[in-house]
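Quick one before lunch.
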Amino acid sequence: MSEKDCIFCRIVRGEIPCARVYEDDAVLAFLDLGPVRPGHTLLVPKAHCATLLELPGDFGPALIAGLKKVGRAVMAATGATGFHVLQNNFSSAGQSVFHAHWHIIPREDGDGLNLWPQGAYPDSASMQETAAAIAAQL
Ligand code: 5GP
Ligand code: ZN
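Model of the guanosine-5'-monophosphate complex:
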């Protein structure tokens, strides 16, 4: 997908409308069209990159600053008492728009959402093996 056709690049350029909540030199934040909960906001780098893996290494401070600012505002505006920051990379992980973005999703006690269905390793050896396999790639 080229920057010309990328839907989030088009939103950044103002070619497609959005419900904008925040903007600075590095990031734009706007409401997700299909919210998990009301106030669900997307934060995107203004410069196109498809996934986290393509994000410039020095983008961290701008990203964290934007997430903190928008996360705080989403909580305050919705009355939420918590929020998720979620990011999907590649289609297997549910990424549908290939311009890296962070979901900020407000949460309240007892809201019934379960985004974190946990499992378990069969034993500690297999857990250590998995850690070693990942470490070997680094
Ligand atoms: P992903 O599945 O890639 O992590 O998330 C993409 C998100 O973008 C989805 O939650 C979807 O609802 C949202 N989305 C897709 N197209 C548009 C759009 O044109 N405008 C807005 N505001 N959100 C969009
Ligand atoms: Zn883009």
